[in-house]
Amino acid sequence: MQSGARGYAGFFLVGPTAVGKSAVAQRLAEAGGWHILSADSMLVYKGMDIGTAKPSPDERARVRYWAVDLGDPDQPFSVAPYLEEARRAFETAARLRARLIVVGGSGLYVKALLHGLSKGPGPAAGARARWTRLLEEQGLPALQEALRTGYPPWYEALADKQNGRRLIRALEQAEAGVEAPPRTWTQAGEPHPLVGLNRPRAQLHERIEERVRLMYRNGLLQETERLLAATPGLGPTAGQAIGYAEAADCLRGRCSEAEAIARTIARTRQLAKRQMTWFRRQSQVRWIEVEKGMTTEAMAGLVAAEWEKMGATPVEL
Question: Who's near 187: CB < 8 A, 6+ residues apart?
Fold first, then answer.
């Protein structure tokens, strides 16, 4: 593992959901004896396996994974404990002289690894609980209205206004006295070289639909039912996760299974679009365009070749 500005560096593989990142990372990690650090904000939740396409127990038995199953789904999960886990991952990999692959599509986690946490003021005591309660009782529109009317610059800067977690984070910072969104809210400084996978839109949409339908066939409704029945069940963050929110509505009789599947497909496609928008701002992402029919082995070869040319990307831990 190469040393970065803070002593650690990793091999990043980014891109939209369902593009094939996880399979490529698994193949490379198995072949090289490497570790994998997930950069997916939903894989941190225990019990949310089918709807997050979490690595199977067999895959995790063959590769050391980090940042998976860290928290309970009834509790929110922030970037700070994720970075603590990432630090442990880099330290362990360095001690074992193993490379560390960072794979995922959560821009917030990738940005935190590349640039560290914001140095702005912390939220007031109880702020997160108060905004979380508003989300639980009145839904996303209430959070959106609070941010729009109380802190217009923050509302305008927020790209994903349908994300309750991001709305709460913006309200916390704005309420703490930050008059305007920091530059890192939309632009995290000089871009770092990363490797990314991309597919033509029609091909990606087809893969998303196949994945979603497979999740429902494999028991997403049953998994969601177990999570909802648990005490205290799904929290506001996990409860709004793509697939789980739709499955919960289906179980509560608010929509049919077919409607839940269609909504999950639509939301997943929207997520893929947002992910590509964010990563394209990283001007040094070296995109590998995946051709239809390309095997995982072929993709892995292209990714490995790019990593060897560019080296590891330094992280801020």
Answer: 281
Closest CA to 60 of 78, 36, 84: 36
**In the chain, domain spans:** 9-118+187-314, 127-181
Q: What are phi and psi of 198, to 5 degrees?
A: -140, 155
Are 13 and 197 within 8 A, CB to CB? yes
Query: Over 50: is that where the pLDDT of 166 sits?
Result: yes
Mean pLDDT to the nearest integer, 29-35: 98
Q: Is 252 exposed, middle or buried (0-12, 13-18, 19+ CB in 10 A)?
A: exposed
State whether residue 178 is helix, strand or coil: coil
Q: Could you name the CATH architecture of 9-118+187-314?
A: 3-Layer(aba) Sandwich (3.40)
> Could you give the CA distance from residue 48 to residue 264 in angstroms, rounded to a whole number?
15
29 alpha-carbon distance from chain centroid: 20
Among 67-81, 110-124, 165-179, 202-216, name the one with the lowest average pLDDT.
110-124
Contacts of 233 (CB under 8 A, 6+ apart): 73, 74, 227, 239
